[in-house]
Fold these 2 entries.
Entry 1:
Amino acid sequence: MRRWLLGPKVAALALFLLAGCGGQLNLCWTCGGGATDPPFRVYLEPTYQRVKRGETARFSLRVVSDYPSIPFGGIVCLRDDRGNPPPPGIGWGEGCLLFRVEGEARLEPAVEVAPSASPGVYRLRFEVSNSSLIRYAPFALEVE
């Protein structure tokens, strides 16, 4: 009787793992993150942008995995250069954006500058993270 009960439990566990991994059983790298997500690099263009109040600054952010054959998920958030939320009047509708990397991901974040934003140069950064590490993509935004 005991062996008969163990079979369904193992089958249920295997189905659960396969469903969570998109049908591929790979416990270390692709299921739900964990301390084993692969390292990655980030590239941002441009790193300095001038924008008028009430307009939008558009960027190109690339996230490149050091292990291209191993997909992983991540999150990107807009912060000031100290890691705090951006100043009043500067932001993006997403707050934080979830993404998936399969070798490389190209994101196009758009930073909105409200008409009420104060003019000046703001030092900001995109914080890109998976469950293992955080990378920073700093930039300067000049508001006219």
Entry 2:
Amino acid sequence: MLDLRTGMLFRRRRSFHADQEVGAPLALRTTKHYIQVMLSPELLKLLAFDGEDLEVISTHLQDAAVKSVDMAFLPREKRFALVVDRYDWCGAQSGERTRRRSGLHFERVLGVKRSHFEQNCEKSEVLLSISFQASDDPAGQVTLFFEGGGAIRLEVECLEAAMSDLGPAWPCGSPPPVRA
């Protein structure tokens, strides 16, 4: 994982507890340095080049609100991008209930398919998780799973993703619900 704020590269032993309840905030099992980076009040910027890196981005975007009008596939640039309002799970550890506007984009995208997901809809959907399934190394499929069974699948040449906070946090009423 590359932290764009410090320019430091580091690897994790394991990202998440395997026995974590579905829909609950994911607990991290990482090096001390990585936890310090995550709890920083600065804007978060992450890159993903493999499935483990994408799991970290997925954790930060769990329960993010996203509208289909805030998503775009740019076939000439081979890019898929979206803007979300993510719940700040790091701030929640210190008792803060805030959301942040964040951008996420995937490079080298060959195609996009959607299932049970309305295009050009103003209604916010809840992003549950993002996963990567390798098919013909390094190519594979990135899938964004949404509440209610919707999904968007990206066919990628290789995994290359970036997530970045776009501005300050704002207070939100209550934390996202715990899913069983």
